[in-house]
């Protein structure tokens, strides 16, 4: 299985393991992993915020872009269909009328 992983992902995994050995806790390793692939927009935003505290954020994002990750939060950005998107739209039909603020 590990042989099928590309070099960039293997390097990232090695860095994550080294971080653990150094006593550094990565947000994606100490929180519920499902949060990075959540359906609710507020859960996605929380996961993105947690990524902001990660020492491997840049490497994670670079690797995800290189691999064209199909979906989820990687390096503090949300991916959908291999592309970074700003926000996840909630499920359901959009409103017909704008909400008065």
TrEMBL record:
Its cofactor is [4Fe-4S] cluster. It holds the Pfam family Whib. [4Fe-4S] cluster binds at residues 28, 51, 54, 60. The keyword 4Fe-4S applies. One of its GO terms (biological process) is negative regulation of DNA-templated transcription. It comes from the Bacteria. It is found in: Cytoplasm. GO terms for molecular function: 4 iron, 4 sulfur cluster binding; dinitrosyl-iron complex binding; DNA binding; metal ion binding; protein-disulfide reductase [NAD(P)H] activity. One of its GO terms (cellular component) is cytoplasm. Binds 1 [4Fe-4S] cluster per subunit. Following nitrosylation of the [4Fe-4S] cluster binds 1 [4Fe-8(NO)] cluster per subunit. Belongs to the WhiB family. Acts as a transcriptional regulator. Probably redox-responsive. The apo- but not holo-form probably binds DNA. This is Transcriptional regulator WhiB. The gene is whiB.
């Amino acid at each position: 299985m590990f042989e099928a992983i590309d070099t960039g992902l293997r390097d990232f995994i090695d860095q994550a393991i080294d971080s653990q050995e150094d006593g550094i806790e990565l947000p994606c390793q100490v929180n519920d992993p499902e949060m990075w692939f959540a359906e609710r927009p507020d859960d996605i935003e929380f996961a993105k915020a947690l990524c902001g505290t990660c020492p491997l954020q840049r490497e994670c994002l670079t690797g995800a872009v290189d691999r064209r990750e199909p979906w989820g939060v990687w390096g503090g950005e949300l991916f959908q269909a291999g592309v970074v998107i700003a926000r996840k739209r909630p499920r359901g039909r959009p409103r017909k009328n704008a909400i008065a603020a």
